[in-house]
Amino acid sequence: MWRKERYNQIMDTKAKLNEAMKDAMKSGDNLRKQTIRMVLAAVKQAEVDKRVDLDEVAVTALIQKEVKNRRESIEDAKKANRDDLVAGNESEIKILEEFLPKAMPIEELKALVQAAITETGAAAPSDMGKVMKVVMPKVAGRAPNDMISAAVKELLTK
Asked: Does domain 2-97 have CATH number 3.40.47.40?
């Protein structure tokens, strides 16, 4: 048993998705199976389009994009008073979040942004691109891009 746990710690996200797909098929969990299948299809499509194997960062970005799409769908479903769609998308988000790295606390993100501002000598919102270029590799998928840009904007306008 300990071997499987250790293997899961060092396994990349694509391998985890494939294992989760097998488990969902065995258990008969259709929602989980469909959600994971959709992510694997998106990964495969991106690999075919770019003609490369996606690395860990790219797979994480794809999963984050899918979560963002679900959140937008929830907003649309709420406007249309479709509670069934809201519940379905929320369930899918929970499944997808299992494959994302642990979220970065906002305080840690702001500390990274502040360090990047100091490093680049940025002083105005027009320097946002320079700061983002430094911050993005350090965050590496642990925070959504809109959250990062909001933190940069907030600290540059102070």
From this structure: no
How far is 108 from 42, CA to CA, in rounded Å?
Answer: 31
Distances (CA, A) of 57 to 107, 109, 139: 22, 18, 10
The structure tokens listed for 148 are: 């990062």
Which residue intervals of the chain bear CATH 1.10.10.410? 106-156
Q: What is the pLDDT of residues 65-117, one digit of tens each?
A: 999 999 999 999 999 999 999 999 999 999 999 998 888 888 999 999 999 98
Contact residues for 17 (Cβ-Cβ < 8 A; gap 6+): 36, 39, 40, 43, 99
DSSP code string of 32-51: HHHHHHHHHHHHHHHHHHHT
Let me know if domain 106-156 sits in CATH 1.10.10.410.
yes
Structure tokens at 22: 């097998």
